[in-house]
Write a structure and sequence with these properties.
Length: about 200
Amino acid sequence: MPFTLPKLEYSYNSLEPVIDAKTMEIHHTKHHQVYIDKLNEALSKHPELEKQSVEQLLADINKIPEDIRTAVRNHGGGHLNHSLFWQILTPDAKAKEVKGKMIDEITKTFGSINKFKEQFNTAALGRFGSGWAWLVFNKGKLEITSTANQDSPLMEGKVPLLGVDVWEHAYYLKWQSNRKGYMENIWSVINWKKVNELFEQARKK
Ligand code: MN3
């Protein structure tokens, strides 16, 4: 099977009180695992695709055979989005420091880091139903966007730098229907070091 569940670099309880341990555990071991299982199941029908990375599969989603295209879009997207999500969260104080070229670029683009967070949260709260809010790199510029379901910005040629899962399964045990509370608090566990690395990589391409 080509795709497997990535390990978390921190413990399930280490993002508390923002994201509770039970939510993290279920989200990682159940939700993410199901996306991987269903992606692998779909690809087993077209083994020639198993050599591709999930990024490649999604960037060329229209080239995927029709009988598995929706499965790759949903479950490949789910795998990619969650793999990124785990990495852009951290309990580590050093990684959480708001600094780096990325932050300069955010300030230049959105006015200030607080204005950026406000706009990002507006995108997250405005996403009806299930989906994601994103900071992406698109043709040399930063943009805030959101996608439905498990759609990846890569499907539109945009490079995801920071993504926040706004499916209820990401926050319901602690925050119930309070997506706003979840979004306001998630900023205290963002791994800016990682986001900065992704920005530097995207810029060089
Ligand atoms: Mn999720």
